[in-house]
Design goal:
The chain is an alpha+beta fold. The chain folds into two domains: about 150 residues, Rossmann fold; about 100 residues, Nucleic acid-binding proteins (OB fold (Dihydrolipoamide Acetyltransferase, E2P)), CATH 2.40.50.140. About 15% of the residues lie in helices and about 40% in strands. It has a five-stranded mixed sheet, with helices on both faces. A five-stranded antiparallel sheet has the order 12-11-10-13-19. The structure holds adenosine-5'-triphosphate (ATP) and magnesium ion. Magnesium ion (MG) binds next to helix 1.
Length: about 270
């Protein structure tokens, strides 16, 4: 079918409202590309620009080498499943993927549901405030988020964030007794840790109170507190009970460190 290329695309609405700005993106022929991000981030604006329903303020839209106004050659979906109940939604997700495989049509799909984005997209474009934050497959966005926003948006439960500062190779949390050796970093940072990267460790020097246990059948989500820090930990077997105090640790190689001011990954 067609390859889509967006170059420095910008849409400013009346009263200087930013729809999107500086959108640079290549969507390959036959690719299933998902736009994901919170309400108002510019997903529909980008789609409407590609469809030719809006005129760009600046920038270009290409199919192949041809600069175009709009595209009938690409499938465009804007939150098609958002009004369905959970079960039907999962079924339709599979149907749409099957359809895509059969037709091999370049597809752009808008959703604000990160699960939908992660399960459907070959390529996921994550937007915030009219700007692309990161482009990648689900695994890349989950394991290597480029900034604090992407880290917090992708994944359920969301990544745990701990504010603090690194001095002399030691991170100290601002709101609770958590110390972690972190090399080659100085100053205020936010440490991110996913729920499955927190482990029970009798030698672990982090003492956590179990506030609540959500048993989900195949797994349990433990709501923990360390001083004033709240953490969610995922466990697959024999979870403790609420009221217990447990020793925990973080998988070191799985920690995400962000600059506290800019949100950039360090
Ligand atoms: N026709 C319009 N006129 C003026 N401002 C608009 C118009 N359409 C969108 N906007 C503004 O542009 C920004 C991006 O909106 P857009 O509809 O693209 O977001 P979205 O990511 O699709 O959000 P949602 O998840 O709520 O559908 C928002 O600030 C929105 O208020
Ligand atoms: Mg929209």
């Amino acid at each position: 079918m067609a390859e889509v290329r967006l170059v420095s695309l910008k849409k400013i609405y009346e009263k200087n409202v930013v729809g999107v700005e500086d959108i640079n993106l290549e969507i390959e022929d036959k690719e299933f590309c998902v736009f994901v991000g919170p309400s108002g981030c510019g997903k529909s604006t980008t789609l409407r620009l590609i469809a030719g329903l809006e005129t760009p303020t600046e920038g270009e839209i290409y199919i192949g080498d041809r600069k175009v106004n709009h595209i009938p050659l690409v499938f465009l979906f804007d939150e098609p499943l958002s009004n369905l109940d959970a079960k039907l939604r999962v079924e339709m997700r599979t149907e749409l993927k099957k359809l895509h495989k059969r037709l091999s049509a370049t597809t752009i799909y808008v959703t604000h549901d990160q699960i939908e984005a992660m399960t459907m997209g070959d390529k996921i474009v994550i937007l915030n405030k009219g700007r692309i934050q990161q482009i990648g497959d689900a695994e890349t966005l989950y394991d290597h988020p480029v900034n604090y926003f992407v880290a917090g948006f992708m994944g359920s439960p969301p990544m745990n964030f701990i504010e603090g500062a690194v001095e002399d190779g030691i991170f100290r949390a601002k709101d609770g007794d958590i110390k972690i050796p972190i090399e080659n970093v100085k100053g205020k940072v936010i440490v991110g840790v996913r729920s499955e990267d927190i482990v029970v460790d009798s030698k672990g020097n982090i003492k956590a109170g179990v506030e609540l246990v959500e048993a989900l059948g195949n797994e349990a989500l433990l709501h923990l507190s360390v001083g004033d820090i709240s953490l969610i930990m995922r466990m697959y077997e024999s979870p403790p009970h609420s009221g217990d105090v447990i020793n925990i640790n973080f998988k070191r190689e799985k920690l995400h460190i962000f600059n506290a001011e800019t949100g950039e990954r360090l």
